[in-house]
Amino acid sequence: MTDLADALAEAVGPLHVRTDDLSGYGTDWTGRWVGHARLAVAPGTAEEIGKILRICVDAHIGIVPQGGNTGLVGGAVPDGDVVLDLRRLDTVEVDPVAGQVRAGAGATVAAVQAAARAAGLRYGVDLASRDSATIGGTVATNAAGLRALRLGDTRAQMIDVEAVLSTGAVISRRTGLTRDNSGYDLPRWVCGSEGTLAVVTAARLRLLPEPADRATALLAFPDLPAAVAAAASLRREPAIEVLELMLAAGIALVCEQQALPAPFPVDHPVLLLVEATAPADAAGILGALVEALPGVADAAVGVDAADSRRLWAYRELHTESVSRVGVPHKLDVALPLPAFASFVTEVQPAVAQGWPEAAVWMWGHVGEGNLHLNVTGVDPDDEDLDDVVLRMVAEAGGSISAEHGIGRAKQRWLPLVRSAEEIAVWRAVKAAFDPTGTLNPGVLLPK
Ligand code: 2HG
Ligand code: ZN
Fold first, then answer.
1. This prediction's pTM
2. In ligand 1, which atom is closest to the CA atom of 319?
């Protein structure tokens, strides 16, 4: 063992320091971001994290916090750094009276959802990677997911965060108060900072009442403008909690890769997955809304929970299916809804012009103008492709990152959506939290 490994072993116990077989820590889920971990250390407490940080600060070595490693912008991929594996911090404690959960950074989203459910409540953030994605990662990236349209992103659930600064100091309000307007809200700054300000060790999150009834439907449309107009109209309805858009190519890919039957007897260019929740008769409410919608070519309604899961599979299996055909360019972008349909139509030929071999896959949280544009068949390192797409996004008044963050993937394009003055303030904030630049170096802000 090296001096560094010895010092860390003293801090957390030798069983929790790994120096061999580090490839799982060094590569992201998609295979797009390949780095190198110097070693991995798995602390069991915030206090141990403080010790680890002080050791790494003194040794001038970067620390990359990692949970489920499900991020999609290279934000948890080390570059010769120490990986801080947070998965041992997996406690989940529900306070049903307060309607809150305190979850360790390493608890999975699914574990938090299950604990909430057992108390007759629910956690508002849901995403397809729920079984691996951890609370620490979702707080650090302000993950949004499938229900943010109505329930908000991670920041909207957050009551408090416990986090360790690179000095080893622990910050936390510790109160659980839902009204606490006493000055700068550091928990909300840490949320979405992608591990660059502090290491999230736990979060206190709000839980919501479980709706008594829900209904799911898959709606088919003849074209994009009709589907987007339907989404715009449905998002005004309080009962609608989910509005997800898919295209024919993605549906065909999912069916082929996952051996699923086509959802309708004939193919349709665009599908919307919608879900309604209500105190009673969600299916009736959803049925009436669909009936009144112009342009619906066909509809499949989930008659029970198993049937709803069958419809959800077409949406949730997109990411995995795309990865089966190649290492994708992942462009998670946001567009103003009025520009959504024209962007989707125009970006295809723009990509085909420069990269005729490209396959473009698009789907997303259309209720919030969030489009996931994936491209396979093009060298993953060919950033000219990303440049073409992200410039089109900025031109259309959109954002280069809707929910996945900046990571190592998108720093180059930050000036398209953030001013030099804003980025200067970010640097000052970073220096205040992490003066030695130890936390997640090279992520979000260029090194
Ligand atoms: C989703 O909504 C995730 O499916 C992943 O945010 C998107 O794989 C992607 O590009
Ligand atoms: Zn998404």
1. 0.97
2. 8
